[in-house]
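Troubleshooting entry. The earlier prediction with flavin-adenine dinucleotide gave an output that would not parse, so I re-checked the input for stray whitespace and re-submitted. Clean input:
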Amino acid sequence: MNTIDTVVIGGGVSGLTAARLLTQAGQNVVVLEARTRLGGRLWTDRTDGTITDRGASWIHGINNSPLADLVHQLGMKTVEFTVGGYQADSRPIAHYSPDGIRLSDTEAAAYVADIHAVDAQLAELIAVSAPGTSYGEAVEATLAQQGWDPERTMRVREYLRHRSEEQYGVWIDDLDAHGLDDDSIDGDEVVFPDGYDVLSTRLGDGLDVRLGHKVSQVAWADGGVTVTTDHGDFTAAQAVVTVPVGVLKSADFKITPALPEPVAGALDRLEMNNFEKVFLRFPRKFWDDGVYAIRQQGKAGEWWHSWYDLTALHGEPTLLTFAAGPCAVATRKWDESAIVTSIMEALQRLYGDRVPQPIQVDITDWQDDPFARGSYAYMKVGSTPEDHDLLATPVGGVLHIAGEATWTDDPATVTAALLSGHRAARNILGREVSLSQLPDRLPR
Ligand SMILES: Cc1cc2nc3c(=O)[nH]c(=O)nc-3n(C[C@H](O)[C@H](O)[C@H](O)COP(=O)(O)OP(=O)(O)OC[C@H]3O[C@@H](n4cnc5c(N)ncnc54)[C@H](O)[C@@H]3O)c2cc1C
């Protein structure tokens, strides 16, 4: 058997990017992937002839995006859908009052203006906040400065709660004040009618990937690494470890010797979230025309508050909603019918008996997925944005951690996965390599 230069653990976007760039540079690379498919948290479900992205769906802003450039190079089809980030008004949204009455344009404009006013001040307050401040505390301090009545204050508070839940899958008081610093969208957002996994399939094309290889231990030393799997050991000069933070922290995945500082501390301060998708396909459209999303204010929208109209993707009337943060925790063990009943009650509050039973429902279960253990990582209170990059500090010159949680500028995204894999390859090669070569054929 040929000597392995680099073992890459994980066949998601970060691992495949690193493996492809290293293979193109002439290295002998083996990718070990526990699942029987590539893509990791890119997972396009094609059962029953429908295309459903159960993991990532969006590129959150295509301007100045290396991911958008790559997708373009690969000829992947995209559809504009600019509401992926929890935005208040980037595209038309039907806002419903706590009583289920649609806000007039004037009322919606006033509500959105309140959000923008608080948002601007919130960013200033967070910039000077003491370490250990939660996002919730920063929000409360900013709201207190407004001098608004309780009702007006509550509408903006709940919007910011929902943002923390929908963007990071976490209750507002459990997220560090800086946990949404990266939350900006540059340009249109897009989704993939043919499935996001075309990206991972193309990145994996021609690589030496061993599917169904579950790694249980990575032993590192000056001379290299030995990776233990349920199909035997793999020895290499170095390893790129791209398993999610939840796996890295688990007892099922040992690193010996234990990770040193600053990597160990950074890992401790990041945490996997609670965030699930619910897709509802209906026999007919019953919701507002000409809107990208429907939003419910107030107590009625505590859990199910936002529905996104995916009809434009495949021409089938489809709404996507999220169980995010506390809702995902509370409904984790619910069966499908209990979740659908709960969502249907919320929709019927808005649309009455016009709401037909869905003809197909898909609910994800990332929280109980042993190779994900949540959807993506968030910043616990007391962490700093730099913890993401610190997690990728090379260990002993032989161990390189990559993945969405290791990229400070835009964590928790496919972009982060791509760029972190690129960085790992550069660090191993000790020189610059261009991302634009990724679509090139592999040597031999
Ligand atoms: C529901 C959901 C919605 C999302 N929405 C978006 C979005 O719209 N836009 C966006 O940009 N991002 C989104 N994300 C985040 C995005 O999917 C991830 O940031 C990105 O795909 C992570 O890539 P990765 O390579 O870092 O990790 P992964 O894709 O998780 O790859 C790691 C790989 O390691 C494997 N692995 C784990 N344990 C082991 C083991 N013991 N042995 C061997 N292999 C192992 C896993 O199976 C996996 O394939 C979403 C994620 C989820 C779950």
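This one parsed fine. The two ends are 17 Å apart (CA to CA).
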